[in-house]
Amino acid sequence: MSEYHVGVLITDFDPLRIKRRWKEAIAGEIHIPFYEVDAHKIVPCWTASPKGEYAARTYRPKVRRALTEFLEEFPKLKRHPFPWNEDACEIDWRLIAGSLEVNTSVSEISLITPGQRAAREMLNHFLAHKLARYNEMRNDPTLDGQSSLSPYLHFGQISAQRMALEVEKSTIDPVSKEAFLEEFVVRRELSDNFCFYNSNYDSVDGFPSWAQTTLEEHSGDKKQHIYSLEQFEGAETHYVLWNAAQMEIVKAGKMHGYMRMYWAKKILVWTETPADALRIATYLNDRYELDGRDPNGYVGCAWSIGGVHDRAWPSRPVFGKIRYMSYQGCRSKFDVDSYIQKVHNL
After folding, report:
1. What is Dmax (Cα atoms) for the chain?
2. Same domain, 50 and 177
3. Percentage with pLDDT > 90 across the chain
4. CA-CA-CA-CA torsion for 128, 129, 135, 138, nearest 10 degrees?
């Protein structure tokens, strides 16, 4: 920094533990102003709420009110008054890649094109062909009804604010528009809230007290099948539907949101403890999902296994009062056989 006379350093906000440690380490080594800006979402995490929220119903009115201030069009870029006169060095990406420890055992995903331009094309396609029917299509894994933009958001190739602005401008059915904004703004930003204010976001200690209690009460319940991490990873369970969901993330780098909930809940049924279930679900999610290592993923696993942002339901074996999802429930919502065939054809 001293070589180029850098006067200030600006970083983006991220609520996850590892990113916060990186920034703390950097802050201790520099002697210039260091600012953190929350462009990860629309409403800055600490502005939306000063505390961890119990559920979407407590967070929703806060973030909705703040949207009137923060959901505004980006200002046009201005030319800097002081030009950069030095030549930019060409980056040798092969040299950089060679210095990293890259696990090549996970195959590259060829079903999605990376980059800012591809992200914008995907958004335009969603607005033109999917948004109008989003409310009726979003929970059916056999339909291509979701935006499929989460990998682009995760890697910063499109911003949440740009997506929300374009959805707001659309003239489609307001029911579908509201359904999308509920998932995209309220639920997504609630995930950041949870990870920011709860240091145990990836542990059973982060589950609400009622969930920890009910899971402990049912810790001795009999389980017919117990699978190892290797069996889960290889899609070697006795449930063809679960195996298909696992193979979807291996082949496509993503899994339909409804299936991800079912997938995680079955891991709870087939492991010794909730801690094992959360560890395995988190590992598989972060290893294979293109949007893994993201607050949405941690909260999705914690919701499915530990009742985070949910309420207590009628008690049943293994789950206790955690919300239950079943194979028959899936059959009532979508064509299970078509989904399995769809994954097989990937």
Report:
1. 70
2. yes
3. 78
4. -130
